Amino acid sequence: MNQASSLAPEEGVPVSVKIRERLNGAGRRFFANDNIAEFIEPGELAALLDEVQAKMQAVLDSLVIDTANDHNTQDTARRMAKMYIGEVFRGRYGEAPQVTEFPNAARLNELLIVGPITVRSACSHHFCPVIGKLWIGVMPNEHTNVIGLSKYARLTDWIMGRPQIQEEAIVQLADLIMEKTRPDGLAVVMEASHFCMSWRGVREMDSKMVNSVMRGAFLTDATLRREFLSLIPGRG
Ligand SMILES: Nc1nc2c(ncn2[C@@H]2O[C@H](COP(=O)(O)OP(=O)(O)OP(=O)(O)O)[C@@H](O)[C@H]2O)c(=O)[nH]1
Fold it and tell me: Is 81 a pocket residue for ligand 1 (Cβ < 6 Å)?
């Protein structure tokens, strides 16, 4: 029996194809800013890393870079694969952070603000860095789950660790915090520099994008909204 005929049918199929088949089978979206962790089986991330490395090497070859002899770029394909899968786009491939929720025993119903939380992301269009900060305001009610302060930063990191556009990133984050804590109101303000606008393209160095999402009480109560915005220290 030759080697090819001894392989199981799925062997030799790129792992990205297997993962995509599962996603399609489940009717799940897999846009750049979607998390796909639940469709990746144990051990497959290592295979995905090898697959991406090979494709990155092909890109470097097409860029006519002599990676065989250039000591600086010899391992660049591997580094890029590790950076995308294990670091900067970890929010696509990794599980959501564990968030311990506590009952609101003291029936807290006062405004809480956390920030600035560092934003590290990349734009979906050019994969250029998006670096900034954000502030989160929560108006709890007696049924709101209390979560540890650090969890706001962990949830932010998970959402931002994907190719994003700022408008969608902030909505994804707001949806996630609403789902975890069920507050009366939620406000998120984000301010970020987009390197696709400074390093390349229009090469505008100082402009930033600021956007906000207001939910519940922050939408209906102008006084609360003003209080939140006035309490964000040193924005800009
Ligand atoms: N709305 C929005 N636009 C973004 C964001 N990040 C980057 N962009 C912009 O998205 C656009 C990218 O699409 P194109 O216009 O097709 O790209 P391009 O031809 O390389 O454009 P230039 O950047 O103008 O050279 C650029 O204008 C970026 O500045 C974001 O978070 N939100």
Answer: no
Q: Assess whether the C-beta atom of 50 lies below 6 angstroms from ligand 1.
A: no
Whether ligand 1 lies within 6 angstroms of the CB of 165 is answered as yes
pLDDT value, residue 101: 80
For residues 6-27, b (16+ Cβ closer than 10 Å) or e, as one string? eeeeeeeeebeebbeeebeeee
> Do 43 and 83 fall within a single domain?
yes
pTM of the full predicted structure? 0.92
Tokens encoding 227: 């209080």
Give the number of domains in the chain. Answer: 2
Confidence of residue 8 (pLDDT cuts 50, 70, 90): low
* C-alpha 106 – ligand 1 centre gap (Å): 46
Tell me: do 120 and 48 sit in the same domain: no
CB of 201 closer than 6 angstroms to any ligand 1 atom: yes
Same domain, 122 and 211: yes
* Whether residues 171 and 112 fall in one domain: yes
User: What distance in Å separates the CA atoms of residue 114 and residue 231, rounded to the nearest whole number?
Assistant: 10
CATH number of the CATH domain containing 193: 3.30.1130.10
Query: Which residue of 121, 164, 196 sits with most ligand 1 atoms within 8 Å of its CB, as the best mutation to test the pocket?
Result: 196
> Who has greater pLDDT, 11 or 21?
21
